[in-house]
């Protein structure tokens, strides 16, 4: 699991650790990791031109110490001081002692234009609000530069706790995070500015709390959560998922959601709705039923919404499914039709899967507000509906109603935004709910497999191919974990 900790938590851990170490030890560790990452990036140090954008806090200090280390190995180092009277004195002295020089912000353009590498030490976790004009100008120069840009701890201008970006922000090729990932490095729009994310351990681990603010699953976590049938399994033990989707107008949504559910590993899929002929033609193993969901027979979880429409049949089906005492996934049209109070009153797990536009409608907000503040908005959704909310988008987030860590999906690609992609995700996640995963695990594992399937397929692809790819990515996850566990020879 990759974890993100908010600034307050990181600061407290740093204080606890610093109390046990000589002065300046943490900054030395950070600067050493940073200089190593820069040398890797440059592929050699001697004769390279390094420019430091040095703010007046410790972030600038890290950058200056790293530049001093590079200068000692033969790089030319120049620091642009944002506020010369307040630059970190020890780090500045180290840079000068190593032969580096400083220039005023007015001269930044010229030195950045000749640089091979720009180190962004404008602000780190001490940044407040959008970048001030002088800092914003430097961030813009760095963005336009042909040099490689390495962000120190985080790209200046992104909010470390939320990933929100107000105005200009540095766009890095590499970001070197110290001690702990901050949530803003993992959530868009901040995450888009990070480039390749590297980590430098400064020893904070033992001082960080057990529960982070944000979690990103990795292969081993997913492998541990994925259900596998055992000798005792029958279709009910593996989980029967009921899918209420599709309409005369959108029969394809039914096929895609059922396909996702089958590939998610359910023991059986029941389909309820007017798309039965299309479903059976593609997946003859589906149990179809013409009546309402309440009469469809036993299921361990329901998926409702893709392509459903909003006629009286759809409304009735949503009310019945929301009233069921098994886990329910509510998507697409059903998000509009579900009664908020009825959803809040549910006792079994509930997963809502809106994209930003649907989330905006549910929260009475603007779509842009949802996209710009994804973490706050997914938490709000979970709270207001007392449900697990999966907010789809460039970084998919999953928040539970209990205030536990929010999950951010690390897989996925822009090619996933294709018609029907969400229908597959719904079926897939519903299948995991039926197998007994908690709402938050089912949603985050569903998003992980779905995203990985999207990365694995040569683009462009159609949504039905995503479902077909799930068994392959599942196998590769299992393989990678088994191989990791083998002794190395
Ligand atoms: N505290 C520690 O133990 C460690 C801190 N480290 C570094 O220290 C950083 C935090 O240092 P600081 O607390 O000094 O804070 P920062 O250096 O992140 O930021 C503070 C500086 O930024 C300026 N600033 C704030 N908001 C701004 C805005 N919107 N526009 C322009 N300038 C703005 C402030 O005036 C101040 O000069 C971390 O990100 C990390 O790089 C590392 O050296 C590891 C150890
Ligand atoms: K920075």
From TrEMBL:
EC assignment: 4.2.1.136, 5.1.99.6
Domain YjeF C-terminal stretches: 218-477
Sites where the protein binds K(+): 59, 120, 156
Keywords of the record: ATP-binding, Isomerase, Lyase, Metal-binding, Multifunctional enzyme, NAD, NADP, Nucleotide-binding, Potassium
Domain of life assignment: Bacteria
Free-text comment on the cofactor: Binds 1 potassium ion per subunit.
YjeF N-terminal domain segment(s): 10-210
UniProt-annotated binding residues for AMP: 392-396, 422
CDD domains, per the entry: YXKO-related
Catalytic activities: (6S)-NADHX + ADP = AMP + phosphate + NADH + H(+); (6S)-NADPHX + ADP = AMP + phosphate + NADPH + H(+); (6R)-NADHX = (6S)-NADHX; (6R)-NADPHX = (6S)-NADPHX
Binding site for (6S)-NADPHX: 58-62, 124-130, 153, 253, 307, 355, 423
SUPFAM superfamilies: Ribokinase-like (SSF53613), YjeF N-terminal domain-like (SSF64153)
Entry cofactors: Mg(2+); K(+)
Function: Catalyzes the dehydration of the S-form of NAD(P)HX at the expense of ADP, which is converted to AMP. Together with NAD(P)HX epimerase, which catalyzes the epimerization of the S- and R-forms, the enzyme allows the repair of both epimers of NAD(P)HX, a damaged form of NAD(P)H that is a result of enzymatic or heat-dependent hydration. Catalyzes the epimerization of the S- and R-forms of NAD(P)HX, a damaged form of NAD(P)H that is a result of enzymatic or heat-dependent hydration. This is a prerequisite for the S-specific NAD(P)H-hydrate dehydratase to allow the repair of both epimers of NAD(P)HX.
Oligomeric form and interacting partners: Homotetramer.
Protein family membership: In the C-terminal section; belongs to the NnrD/CARKD family. In the N-terminal section; belongs to the NnrE/AIBP family.
Protein's name in the database: Bifunctional NAD(P)H-hydrate repair enzyme
Originating species: Streptantibioticus parmotrematis
Originating gene: nnrD
